[in-house]
Amino acid sequence: MPLRFRLNGRDKQILESTDLAFLYKLVRVMKNPKTKFNEVDFVTKGEDYLFNYVNNNVGGVDEGRRNFLKGILIGVAVTTVAGIVPGLRVLIPPVQSVSGFPKTLILDSSGNPIKASTLPVNSPIIMVFPYPLQNEINFLLNLGDENGNPVEVPPTTVVVPQTGDKYQFPGGVGPNKSIVAYSAICQHLGCTPPYIHFYPPKYVNISQVTAPEPNKLTVQAVQAAKSAKVPAIIHCDCHGSTYDPYHGAAVLTGPTVRPLPTIVLEWDSSTDYLYAIGAVGVPTYPMSSNGVPSNDPSADLDESQFGASVGDKTEISETNPFSS
Predict the structure, then answer these.
(1) Residue 315 lies in domain
(2) Angle 269-132-121 (CA atoms, 0-180°, nearest 5)?
(3) How many separate domains does the chain show?
């Protein structure tokens, strides 16, 4: 008997009985220690891994079976099916959405998943990744103290100077809760790297005031870092805006009147992988002009402004702005 559900007074067929039997068989094989399904390979290789796994352990994958599996991967009735066939939830696609934001695996510049435990602390290298749309670039930072030891970044309340509004910054993630991500587009007038970037502790000093662009700090930025007792900052050379990466990219110096938006990260301790799963704060510049923060900044999902969604994977690009 095919699997059906009732919607608006009508029966809708989800699965043929042969498909349901196939899924039960697949789950049994996946749970068998001798033929265990590798979730890490599935995340990184996607449908190719699944097709090969099924072909080797369940039976041949003809065009009909391939299309059926593709339907599962793109979410066709997957929640209903996963509730009926225990163990199938592993096949729910990595692109999951909360208010439209995808769950996106962060890859290094070689296309491999970034391991949180190997991310350099206080790296001078600008590491940016697009999320949630292709033209929304964001810093990935592993924050530390003056001695290069990772620092736990706690949740905190961030104030938007423009409006006085407040929102909650979720804090860092990773084995030391030291990894954070912020928009790499300055909230003042939209300058991007290398003109806005992270300054590690060794570069936050008065000698940097005479450095060439894009590594020039203002006296106000150095003083603000000292007053806030933070060893490192995010600073924009274009007009001098400075942000505190240890406290939700809060504003340290103007002319910006808005903090950098936060990209919410998730750390999978079993794989050491990092995922981008959402955003909090004001929207990405220039959609943030009213200075109103939101837990669901839908303006960040405007494809006419920022391009298409990055989907289930996004890749880091790297640049070293410092000459020494």
Answers:
(1) 104-319
(2) 45
(3) 2
Residue 184: inside a domain, yes or no? Answer: yes
Evaluate whether 186 touches 192 at the Cβ level (below 8 Å). Answer: yes
Asked if residue 122 and residue 12 are part of one domain, the reply reads: no
24-33, 112-121, 257-266, 301-310: which has the minimum mean pLDDT? 24-33
Separation CA 209–CA 82 (nearest Å):
58
Q: Please tell me whether residues 110 and 83 are part of one structural domain.
A: no
- For residue 313, pLDDT over 70 is answered with yes
Residue corresponding to tokens 């289930």? 312
Q: Are residues 311 and 164 in the same domain?
A: yes
Give the CATH number of the domain where residue 210 resides: 2.102.10.10
Residues 64 and 207 in one domain: no
Helices (H), 181-265: 219-228
Euclidean distance between CA atoms 69 and 17, whole angstroms? 15
**pLDDT (0 to 100) of residue 161:** 92
Cα 303 versus chain centre, distance:
18
* Sign of the torsion angle spanned by Cα atoms 158, 214, 116, 175: negative
- Same domain as 13, residue 139: no
Domain identity same for 47 and 115: no
The model's pLDDT over 166-189, given as tens digits with 9 standing for 90+, comes to: 899 999 999 999 999 999 999 998
* Cβ-based burial of 158 (10 A; exposed 0-12, middle 13-18, buried ≥19): buried
Cβ atoms 188, 238 nearer than 8 A: yes
Secondary structure of residue 9 in the 3-state scheme: coil
- Strands of the chain, DSSP E: 3-7, 10-15, 104-107, 126-130, 137-142, 156-159, 166-169, 179-183, 196-199, 233-236, 242-244, 250-253, 262-268, 273-280, 313-315, 317-319
pLDDT band at 213 (very low <50, low <70, confident <90, very high): confident
Helices (H), 1-117: 17-31, 39-45, 47-57, 63-73, 78-84
